[in-house]
TrEMBL record:
This is Endolytic murein transglycosylase. It comes from Salibacterium qingdaonense. The record marks 254 as: Important for catalytic activity. It is found in: Cell membrane. One of its GO terms (biological process) is peptidoglycan biosynthetic process. Functions as a peptidoglycan terminase that cleaves nascent peptidoglycan strands endolytically to terminate their elongation. The chain crosses the membrane at residues 23-46. The lineage of its organism: Bacteria, Bacillati, Bacillota, Bacilli, Bacillales.
C-alpha cells in the first residue's frame, strides 16, 4: 500500500506522534517545575513563618492563654498578638512535633522570639505576669451579684458597669460578634440582657485598667465556647440556645448535687411536652428580685413573665448564670417519666410521676424548710 511521506522520510502519522510526545514532555517538565517551585515556595514560607516576626524587636507583649485552649486557639491568639507570623503554621508545627502540656495564664512574649522559644515558654509556664485583679463568679449567680463582684475587684463601679452592659449600641455589637447572643436578649421582658451569658468562672486580668468591654468579652467567650461544644445538641433541639440557657439556669438554681441535674432537666422537658407550667420556685424569687429561702403562697401570685407558676412555657430569659454541668444536663437530659420533684433542705431530691405522690412529699417535708429558715 502506498503511504505519503514527508521530506524527512517520515509518515504523517509518525510526525504527529512525535509532536504529541514533545507536547507531553514539555507539559510534564512545566508541571514538575511548577511543583518544585510550589514545594520550594511552601518550604520557604513555612520556614519563614517559624522565624521571629522581628528579630530586633525589644517589645514585650502581654498574651493571655485561656484554660482549655488547644493548638489552634493558641495559634490564633499568638498571631493576633503579632508575636508569630501564622497561627495555622503554629498549629501544624505543634502537631508535627507532638508538643503538649501548654499552660494557661498570662505571658510576656516578644516578636523577637521564634516559635520553638514560644512553645518552650508556654509549656514551662514561665514568664507569666501576676494578675492585677481577679474575681470569681460561682455557678448560679444573679447578674446583679456578678456586677457587684466585678466592681469590687476591678477598676469600674457598679453603675458604670450596668450602664455599659445595658447600652443598646454595645449590645448590638456583641450580637454581631457572638453567635451565642441574638436579638432575643433585647426583649423588653428581660430584666438584664446579659443575664445568664456572663459565664461563672475565675477571671484574672493583668491590666489594672482593663475595660468593661474586655472583662465582659472574656465572660461571654466562655459561654460561646459552651455553645460550640454542644452545637450538635443545640441544632437537633426544638429549642433555641437562649431557651436552653434559660432552662440550664433553672436547673442550676434547683439542683445541689451533680447527679440531679440531668434528672431535673428531664422533668422540665417532660412538663413542657405535656403543656404544663414549670412551677419552679427559683423563677418566683427572680421575679420578685429577692433571694428567698422558701416560697410562700403569696409569692406565687407575683405578676411577672418569669413566674412559672403563673405562665406556661420557658421564661423570657435566664434567671442566673448556669455552669457547664447544668448546661450539659440540659443538652443531655435524663430520659425519665417524672413530672414532679421536691428538693429537701439537705440536698436530697425526690421525684414523682403523679401529682398525688408529689403532694404527699410536700406535706411530709415542708416543715423542714420552715425549721431551716428559722435556723
Amino acid at each position: 500500500m502506498f503511504r505519503r511521506t514527508t521530506k524527512e522520510g517520515l509518515t504523517e502519522k509518525e510526525k504527529q506522534a512525535r509532536i504529541v510526545r514533545k507536547i507531553i514532555l514539555i507539559t510534564l517538565a512545566v508541571l514538575v517545575t511548577l511543583a518544585a517551585a510550589a514545594a520550594i515556595g511552601g518550604w520557604l514560607y513555612i520556614s519563614s513563618s517559624l522565624k521571629p516576626v522581628d528579630e530586633d524587636s525589644e517589645e514585650q507583649v502581654s498574651v493571655e492563654i485561656p484554660i482549655g485552649s488547644n493548638a489552634s486557639d493558641i495559634g490564633s491568639i499568638l498571631e493576633d498578638a503579632d508575636v508569630i507570623k501564622n497561627g495555622t503554621v503554629f498549629q501544624y508545627y505543634v502537631r508535627y512535633k507532638n508538643e503538649q502540656g501548654f499552660q494557661a495564664g498570662m505571658y510576656e512574649l516578644s516578636p523577637s522570639m521564634n516559635i520553638d522559644s514560644i512553645i518552650d515558654q508556654l509549656k514551662e509556664g514561665t514568664m507569666m505576669k501576676e494578675a492585677s485583679f481577679s474575681f470569681t463568679v460561682p455557678e448560679g449567680t444573679w447578674y446583679e451579684d456578678i456586677v457587684q463582684t466585678m466592681a469590687e475587684a476591678g477598676p469600674h463601679d457598679v453603675e458604670e458597669i450596668k450602664t455599659k452592659l445595658a447600652d443598646e449600641e454595645y449590645l448590638n455589637q456583641l450580637i454581631e460578634e457572638y453567635d451565642a447572643l441574638t436579638e432575643t436578649v433585647l426583649n423588653e421582658e428581660i430584666r438584664y440582657p446579659l443575664e445568664g451569658y456572663l459565664f461563672p468562672a475565675t477571671y484574672e486580668f493583668v491590666d489594672e485598667n482593663a475595660s468593661i468591654e474586655e472583662i465582659a468579652a472574656r465572660m461571654i467567650e466562655q459561654t460561646e465556647e459552651i455553645m460550640v461544644e454542644f452545637s450538635e445538641q443545640v441544632e437537633e433541639s426544638d429549642y433555641t440556645f437562649h431557651e436552653l440557657l434559660t432552662l440550664a439556669s433553672i436547673v442550676e438554681r434547683e439542683a445541689r448535687q451533680k447527679e440531679d441535674r440531668p434528672k431535673i432537666a428531664g422533668v422540665l422537658f417532660n412538663r413542657l411536652e405535656e403543656g404544663m407550667r414549670l412551677e419552679v420556685d427559683p423563677t418566683v424569687s427572680y421575679a420578685m428580685g429577692e433571694h428567698n429561702y422558701m416560697t410562700s403562697s403569696e409569692d406565687l401570685q407575683t405578676d411577672s413573665p418569669f413566674n412559672t407558676y403563673q405562665h406556661t412555657g420557658i421564661p423570657p430569659g435566664p434567671i442566673a448564670s448556669p455552669g457547664r454541668s447544668s448546661l450539659k444536663a440540659v443538652m443531655n437530659p435524663e430520659d425519665n417519666n417524672y413530672l414532679f420533684f421536691y428538693a429537701r433542705p439537705g440536698g436530697e431530691v425526690i421525684y414523682n410521676e403523679k401529682y398525688e405522690d408529689h403532694r404527699e412529699v410536700q406535706e411530709q417535708y415542708r416543715q423542714e424548710w420552715v425549721e431551716a429558715r428559722e435556723e
